[in-house]
Write a structure and sequence with these properties.
This protein is mostly helical. It folds into 2 domains: 114 residues, RNA polymerase sigma factor, region 2, helix turn helix motif (Rna Polymerase Sigma Factor, Chain: A, Orthogonal Bundle); 81 residues, Winged helix-like DNA-binding domain superfamily/Winged helix DNA-binding domain (Arc Repressor Mutant, subunit A), CATH 1.10.10. It is built from 12 helices and no strands. α11 crosses α12. It is globular and about 50 Å long.
């Protein structure tokens, strides 16, 4: 059974049916990965490539690093895909693998934490243009024009890694707070605290950026 065939069983995914659709898709992916179903990895890459690369870009602040880790994530899934049991959404597992690889890389660089990996980047490393375009707009995209999205991305990159990560997972990737807790391996209360604190930190940055943009017109 493919992801597309699962979706066909739920032609009108109401709010009530959305959870059933997600569970069915997760179980179908888990079964396919365990049986090494032909073409499944390619299908997953096509479906999640934009979201994964965007997450890695925000997490690392460096395009080259993000692209290297992007390849490594899919290699891990190719080799260890049978470990996915389908009890959680596939993207939750995907982002968990990506985050763990970022942390592993930071340890190889003798950096003690994810936050230090970002803070230790050079100015050239951190300045980049986000060119990852997903097929479906995120909540940020739906309410923002191009200039607004660029300001949001710039403001996010000014936050420390832990608060930025929670905002990206919640609003860009639309993960629930419980799913974010699983990805980050943090208590739910910690996730909520980081989310609220991150929102409070980014608000003045966006207001300041908007003021500078208006002055430049």
């Amino acid at each position: 059974m493919t992801i597309a065939s699962v979706r066909a069983l739920f032609p009108k995914a109401t709010a009530a049916a959305a959870d059933d659709l997600a569970r069915a898709e997760s179980l179908a992916v888990a079964q396919g990965l365990k049986s090494r179903k032909a073409g499944l990895i390619e299908e997953l890459i096509v479906r999640y490539q934009h979201r994964l690369l965007r997450y890695l870009l925000f997490l690392t602040g460096n395009r080259e690093t993000a692209e290297d880790l992007f390849q490594e994530v899919w290699m891990r899934i190719l080799v260890h895909g049978s470990q996915f049991n389908g009890h959680a959404r596939f993207e939750t597992w995907l982002f968990t693998i990506a985050r763990n690889l970022v942390i592993d890389q930071s340890r190889k660089r003798t950096i003690n934490s994810l936050d230090e990996l970002i803070d230790g980047a050079t100015e050239d490393d951190r300045s980049m243009t986000f060119e990852v375009v997903a097929d479906d707009p995120t909540p940020f995209d739906r309410v923002a024009g191009l200039e607004d999205r660029e300001r949001i991305a710039a403001a996010l990159l000014e936050l420390d890694a832990l608060h930025r990560e929670v905002l990206v997972l919640r609003f860009h990737e639309e993960l629930s707070l419980e799913e974010i807790a699983r990805v980050t391996r943090a208590p739910l209360s910690t996730v909520k605290s980081r989310l609220y604190r991150g929102m409070a930190m980014i608000k003045p940055k966006l207001e300041c950026a908007a003021s500078r943009f208006q002055e430049a017109l």
